[in-house]
Structure formats: structure tokens, C-alpha cells
Automatic annotation (TrEMBL):
UniProt keywords, alphabetically: 2Fe-2S, Cytoplasm, Electron transport, Iron, Iron-sulfur, Metal-binding, Oxidoreductase, Transport
The species this protein was found in: Camelus ferus
Keyword Iron among UniProt keywords: yes
Gene Ontology biological process: CMP-N-acetylneuraminate metabolic process; N-acetylneuraminate metabolic process
Rieske domain sequence ranges: 126-224
Protein's recorded name: Cytidine monophosphate-N-acetylneuraminic acid hydroxylase
């Protein structure tokens, strides 16, 4: 058994072994045969995405088993806080304890020890005089040799330390002039505040904890700042680059974040979003994908999907693919929220999904392997990938804010990353207070410039041979989102590439749909005219029409659903959502296309402190948000138990808040942590009918 994440265990699937083998789930400390009622936990088979309900009354007979008999599966992922044991079915009293039988798990464990190792890095050395000169409270210090900044907090003899880098988007902290106690610092980017005495962010409240460094005294009473890290996992089993023949490695851009890689006789595709919208109806493709995109997908050897956002995990695209080749191998990282958490309800029939651990090479053939890494800021959902062919590395950081905690391989042959910005409802969908049109325009301009400089600096630091900006080619093309389209100005990839070329010798590539980069040629001679083959003259680059109809029809179908005939759906939904004990009052208003109240729509308050639904705002001190949502999207989200990214990132809301504070716990819950299974609306309607019948009979 090996632990792969928070309350997460990855174990071989029983379907791959003899029927006599079983896995048993027990709460910690339970004895075989003990009758308890832990409720059902969920296992997801990584071979097919099949969900298995686990957890019966008599635990000694509880088994995690995938019921899909069409194929043997590699493993089952148990999402639970339970301990995991193995036993023979014929000997139900045998309890093997915390460690699974090595005979069973041995073949699955090689390399796991390497992935758990830590290394110690000295980030800063302070001389005895410098250490003695530290004042009480906050100290800003710099390593003069590296230029890196740190914060030390001193309280009598106790010291705490961290990097001077905001966990949000890497901004620099400065003294918080509003802090009278001398414990907090403020980020220069977005005014996030960190209490360095606790290493917890206080604005937004309840959001992140800062990664803390180890402070040690040396023999002369100086101080060392140490960082404990896992080793750079790509350095395990290093391979020297071999010569590449022309045409042996080719990278073809299809659209947005979708790349088609030819690697010898294998083909790999990243994040295929090629038809339909993303985030309900808010995002549409900017580029026209090549006309043969579906044939290309059907011929690949494997697909990598970085995360669950619908501009990367596109169910409309995968539905077309599954109709032709449902067993295509798809690989995703072992994120806290499974990438394919909604597969069963999507209507897409995919039977060969593999969830792999982070930082472990996955061997495809003798020459080709890949490794999936997690994001340091959003490890619960974001991932990136390194693909290596004959020792040549291709790094795709996708949407990660701090991929692998900021540690990445240097001098890769090809690096690609996002660049555009604009992938958020902030600040375009906000109004009231400071959110004037002038303020929003200046904020967007400033943030885009910061993002360009950050990406250029990252590329300069990592020194890839070639850099390609991608994963930002979307447009708010629906007519009702004209305001967002005009306001949400995105970065120009050519502007970023020009900035990179000013500061480094890195070769840059601004891709167009169907363009192909020949890695062997470009590494040998970046000026080779055949190194990048552009699409044929006359090829359509930008989309000028989108098929809105079928997708809007799906959303509109939810508006008249029977659920919403009964006002009690509000309590049912928010009880299911499970967010409470937080001092926040939200007013939810269903609207038309122009965010005016929808005739006959719902307008209600939710008090998340006690999860009540008052008629008026409570008299106590409380933060307040008003969320106006287009009725078709909010009802589609509610009915299907979907995440609120469709609303927020998809620009389908308009928001006001008082005071102007980002409530991280609230938004993080509704964007990432909602239950994996939707509300039981069938039961809800049945109970409603029964109650109505009892009332009429009484």
C-alpha cells in the first residue's frame, strides 16, 4: 500500500487477480466482524472510471471491487480516511495490518521509496552577528548571492521563516502599515495578507498556509534557512539525449491547449478541446482546429488531460472520440478531486482511463516515457507533464500557477505554458465600490503586464531551447457576453515571445492551427526553414462562427425542470453542498441574459453560519455577497451537481460584495469541493409528493 495524497490510497484492483483475493476496508482500530455504519465511501477504478460503493454493515466482508468485466484493470483508487487491509476471502479473520502483503503489492512498489525521499537545501546563511541583529517581529532578509528574499519572524527566542513570495501568484510581501501588532505582511500584487506569526493568510481569510522553512543554528550560532524538498523526480534514471532524425519528433498545434505529438512511432495528444464551449457557455474556441482533428485523435496512442476544467477536459470532444474509439488510453494525475469525477453522468463512454501517481516515470516504450507533476498552489486539481523521448524533454506546465512547487527541469528542449490571462470572473463580473470601469481596465492592464513579465522571467530562468505560448486561445463569442469580450483583454503571444527574445537566447514559436514544429531540425538549426511548417496558404486560422444552438438547448432544458417548481429545492441543494459554519450571507438572484431578475425566478438569502434561509439579512455583523446568475446556467449547475466554475470562470454571474474581501473557503468549496455525486432529486420529488398527499388526506 502507498499513500498518494490526502486520505487517498492507490492499490491494485482485485479484478486483475484471482477471485480469492479481496481488499477489506476498516475504520482505524476496528476489529473484523465489528458491526458499524461508516456510510458508503467511493472507489474509482482507474482502468475504466467505474465508481464502486464500499462500506457495508459487517466490515469483515466489505470488499473494494470494480464491477466492469469488459477488461482487467490496473488499480482502484480508494477515496477515504479508512485504513486498508488485505485478506483471503476464505479466512475472514485474517487481518494483515497497515502493510499489505508484499507478495501482492511487491510488483507495484518499485520506485515508490524514491518518490517519498526528501532533500535539504540551504537557502540562506546568516552570520552570528546577523543572527544577533534580528529584531523582534518581522525581518526582511535577502540572500545577496541568489537575490532571493525571505521573511523571519522573531518572538523572543522563537523564530519562524518563509520565502518572501505570496502563494497566490508569487508577489513580493512588504510591511503591512495597517498592522498594529507587527505580525502581518501585505502582497504587492493583490493585497493578500499573511500573518507570519502563524504562517496563515488572513486576507483572504481561511485560505492558504505559507510553506514554512526550517530554521537551524549552526556551530557558531549563526542561522541556516533550510527547505525540505522531494528530489527532482525527473532526475531519477537520467538518460542522455540521443540524436533525432528529421521528422522523428513533430509537435502539431491543434487549438487552445491541444498539441499532437509524434514521438517516433507513438502519438500523444494533450488536452483535446476541439468542439463546443467550455464553462457552460462562456468560452469558445478562438482558433479553427484542423479539419482532420477527429481522425488525428482516433489514431493516437495516449491522451493526457491535465485537469478537470472544461477547456482541457472537453466532454463534447471526448464524446465524438468515444463514438469511434472508446478504449483509447487516457492518463490523468492522482488529484484530490478526480479529473473524471463526472464521467458516469456525462454520457461519454470511455473505458481506458488511468490515474497515475505524481513524480513517477510512466514508460510507454523503450524510448518514450512521461511524468505527471502536481501544481504547488492547486494540488487538488491542477497538473503538468514532462514527456521524454530518447532523452529529450518536453515540458508542458499548462495552467499551473507554481508547477511542482516551483521546481522544474532546466534546459528542456521544448517548453509550453499558458500566457493569456483572463481565465477568471475577476474583476470583469464585479460591480459596486471600487469596481468602476476605469478601475477594472487599469487592473486588467496591470495584471496582464505582470503575467507577461512573470512568464518571460520563468522562461529566462529555465532556459528551454524552444518556448511556445499556448492554452490561452479562447474567446467570449456568444453575443450576450459582448461586454466580457470587450473588457477581458488578453495577452498577445507575440508580445510575450518578443519580450523573451529581448532577455534570452530562447527560440520562440507562436503556433497556428495545423502548424508543425520538427524538434530534430529546430535543435540542429533554429533557422532551418523546414523547422516549423506552417499550415497551407488559405487555411482558416480564426473561427468566425460557433454552433451555439445544441449547447444552449442543453442548458435551457434545466429552466423548466420539475425540481424548480418547489421552493424547497433551495434548502435541499445547499444542504447537499455541505458548506456551513462560516460567517457569510449570500443573496442569490436568478436573472435573464442581461442579469435583470428573471420573471418568476428565485431571489433568496443563504446564511452560511447556520445554513438557514432568512427573509432578511441578520442583524449581526456579517460579510455579504450578491450573486446574480443567468437562470439557464445556475439551474443546469444545480440540477446536475456541477461545480461553480461554470458560473464564475464562465462569466455567467455578476457579483457585489461588502466588505470587498475574497471568501476563499466559500468559493473553493463550490468550485472544487462539492460532493462527487449530485443531489438525489428523484428522492426529493418523491418526498414532496408524499408530503403533499399526506396534507391533502389530512
Amino acid at each position: 500500500m502507498y499513500r498518494t495524497g490526502r486520505n487517498r490510497f492507490c492499490v491494485p484492483c482485485p479484478d486483475a487477480w484471482a477471485a480469492s483475493r479481496r481488499y477489506l476496508l476498516f475504520p482505524r482500530g476496528a476489529q473484523p466482524g465489528t458491526s458499524v455504519n461508516p456510510g458508503l465511501t467511493t472507489a474509482i477504478c482507474t482502468g475504466c472510471g467505474e465508481q464502486v460503493e464500499v462500506g457495508m454493515a459487517v466490515l469483515s466482508f466489505t470488499a473494494a471491487r470494480c464491477h466492469n468485466k469488459e477488461r482487467e484493470h490496473a488499480s482502484v483508487l480508494i477515496q477515504s480516511g479508512f485504513s486498508l487491509y488485505a485478506s483471503q476471502e476464505e479466512d475472514t479473520g485474517a487481518l494483515l495490518g497497515e502493510k499489505l502483503n508484499q507478495e501482492l503489492l511487491g510488483p507495484f512498489l518499485p520506485g515508490m521509496e524514491q518518490s517519498l525521499e526528501q532533500t535539504t537545501e540551504i537557502l540562506l546563511c546568516l552570520s552570528p552577528a546577523e543572527a544577533a541583529g534580528l529584531k523582534e517581529g518581522i525581518n526582511f532578509v535577502r540572500n545577496k548571492s541568489t537575490g532571493k528574499d525571505y521573511i523571519l519572524y522573531k518572538k523572543q527566542s522563537h523564530l519562524r521563516a518563509c520565502k518572501n513570495m505570496c502563494k497566490h501568484q508569487g508577489g513580493l510581501f512588504i510591511k503591512d502599515i495597517e498592522d498594529l501588532d507587527g505580525r502581518s505582511v501585505r502582497c504587492t500584487k493583490h493585497n493578500w495578507k499573511l500573518d507570519v506569526s502563524t504562517m496563515k493568510y488572513i486576507n483572504p481569510p481561511g485560505s492558504f498556509c505559507q510553506d514554512e522553512l526550517v530554521v537551524e543554528k549552526d556551530k557558531e550560532n549563526g542561522l541556516l534557512l533550510l527547505e525540505l524538498n522531494p528530489p527532482n523526480p525527473w532526475d531519477s534514471d537520467p538518460r542522455s539525449p540521443e540524436d533525432l532524425a528529421f521528422g522523428e519528433v513533430q509537435v502539431t498545434y491543434l487549438t487552445h491547449a491541444c498539441m499532437d505529438l509524434k514521438l517516433g512511432d507513438k502519438r500523444v495528444v494533450f488536452d483535446p478541446w476541439l468542439i463546443g464551449p467550455a464553462f457552460a457557455r462562456g468560452w469558445w474556441l478562438l482558433h479553427e482546429p484542423p479539419s482532420d482533428w477527429l481522425e488525428r485523435l482516433c489514431q493516437v496512442d495516449l491522451i493526457y488531460i491535465s485537469h478537470m476544467h472544461s477547456d482541457h477536459l472537453s466532454y463534447p470532444t471526448l464524446k465524438k472520440l468515444a463514438e469511434r474509439r472508446s478504449n483509447i488510453p487516457i492518463y490523468v494525475g492522482n488529484t484530490e478531486r478526480p479529473v473524471f469525477w463526472n464521467l458516469n453522468r456525462s454520457g461519454v463512454q470511455l473505458t481506458n482511463i488511468h490515474v497515475v501517481p505524481f513524480g513517477i516515470w510512466q514508460q510507454v516504450d523503450r524510448n518514450l516515457r512521461f511524468m505527471i507533476l502536481m501544481d504547488g498552489v492547486h494540488p487538488e486539481m491542477d497538473t503538468c507533464i514532462i514527456v521524454e523521448y530518447k532523452g529529450h524533454k518536453i515540458l508542458n506546465t499548462v495552467d499551473c500557477t507554481r508547477p511542482n512547487g516551483g521546481r522544474l527541469p532546466m534546459k528542456v528542449d521544448l517548453m509550453m505554458s499558458d500566457f493569456a490571462g483572463g481565465a477568471s470572473g475577476f474583476p470583469m463580473t464585479f460591480s459596486g465600490g471600487k469596481f468602476t470601469e476605469e478601475w477594472k481596465a487599469q487592473f486588467i492592464k496591470t495584471e496582464r503586464k505582470k503575467l507577461l513579465n512573470y512568464k518571460a522571467r520563468l522562461v529566462k530562468d529555465l532556459q528551454p531551447r524552444i518556448y511556445c505560448p499556448f492554452a490561452g486561445y479562447f474567446v467570449e463569442s456568444h453575443p450576450s457576453d459582448k461586454y466580457i469580450k470587450e473588457t477581458n483583454i488578453k495577452n498577445d503571444p507575440d508580445e510575450l515571445n518578443n519580450l523573451i527574445k529581448k532577455n534570452s537566447d530562447v527560440v520562440t514559436w507562436t503556433p497556428r492551427p495545423g502548424a508543425t514544429l520538427d524538434l530534430g531540425r529546430m535543435l540542429k538549426d533554429p533557422t532551418d526553414s523546414k523547422g516549423i511548417i506552417e499550415p497551407p496558404e488559405g487555411t482558416k486560422i480564426y473561427k468566425d462562427s460557433w454552433d451555439f444552438g445544441p449547447y444552449l438547448k442543453i442548458l435551457n432544458a434545466a429552466v423548466g425542470d420539475e425540481i424548480f417548481l418547489h421552493a424547497s429545492w433551495i434548502k435541499e441543494y445547499f444542504t447537499w453542498a455541505g458548506f456551513k459554519d462560516y460567517n457569510l450571507v449570500v443573496r442569490m438572484i436568478e436573472t435573464d441574459e442581461d442579469f435583470n431578475p428573471f420573471p418568476g425566478g428565485y431571489d433568496y438569502l443563504v446564511d452560511f453560519l447556520d445554513l438557514s434561509f432568512p427573509k432578511e439579512r441578520p442583524s449581526r455583523e456579517h460579510p455579504y455577497e450578491e450573486i446574480r446568475s443567468r437562470v439557464d446556467v445556475i439551474r443546469h449547475v444545480v440540477k446536475n451537481g456541477l461545480l461553480w466554475d461554470d458560473l464564475y470562470i464562465g462569466f455567467q454571474t455578476r457579483l457585489q460584495r461588502d466588505p470587498d474581501i475574497y471568501h476563499h473557503l466559500f468559493w473553493n468549496h463550490f468550485q472544487i469541493k462539492l460532493p462527487l455525486t449530485p443531489p438525489n432529486w428523484k428522492s426529493f420529488l418523491t418526498c414532496y409528493e408524499q408530503s403533499r398527499a399526506e396534507i391533502s388526506q389530512g
